[in-house]
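Meet my pick.
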Amino acid sequence: MVRSGDATGRQVWLAVETSTATGSIAIWKDGLAIETTLRIQGTHSERVLPAVDGALAATGTGPEDLTALVVGSGPGSFTGIRIAASMAKGWAMARATPLFAYPSLLAVAAGCGATGPVCALFDARRGQVYAAVYQVSDAGVDQLLSPGAWRIEDLLVELERRDMRPIFAGEGALVHEGAIRDAVAEARILPQHLAVPRAASLLWLRGVAPGLGHVARPESWEPIYVRDWKIEEESG
């Protein structure tokens, strides 16, 4: 069963993005996006569910009103991604609510306002980044480099090999600004306030590219970890 809204066709979407230390919850209801940002580093399990409950209460929305769930699927914080994914999967299966998942790096590219290709980066520690390159417009999304884990130097070589000159955005771009500018003399690196993946951007993606994010089988869906989270947590 797929819910398509109430008798009036009203849509109510809930989006959750927890791939980085700056998480957010957003609700789209009757054309209005309401977003709450929260600092969740180390406290994902304590902050996310109460934030969802608060957003629902603030908009007069009950769980039964939701017609879609939208989640950032990583890569990024293993703990944050697992919590958001588990919540979304459980909710989708229990209530037959359609689930949509978009890469968190894509949320950065979609929310930064750039008109050209965007290389979105999250810091993965030890000189590595999670990175992807997207071209985003009102017409949809083109993935130019799929999400992956890279040594920053290798990523920059790969972009050069592909003759890409993207705008750089995300916390990884700020952490590795020196290496980027050494390799790309005229690199454009977007500032901090444009560097975070936002739940509101996930809502926008659900509107313009629903087919890209639709999860047909929530019970077997898994987020984008890129690297083995067990190894990462044991070594981190």
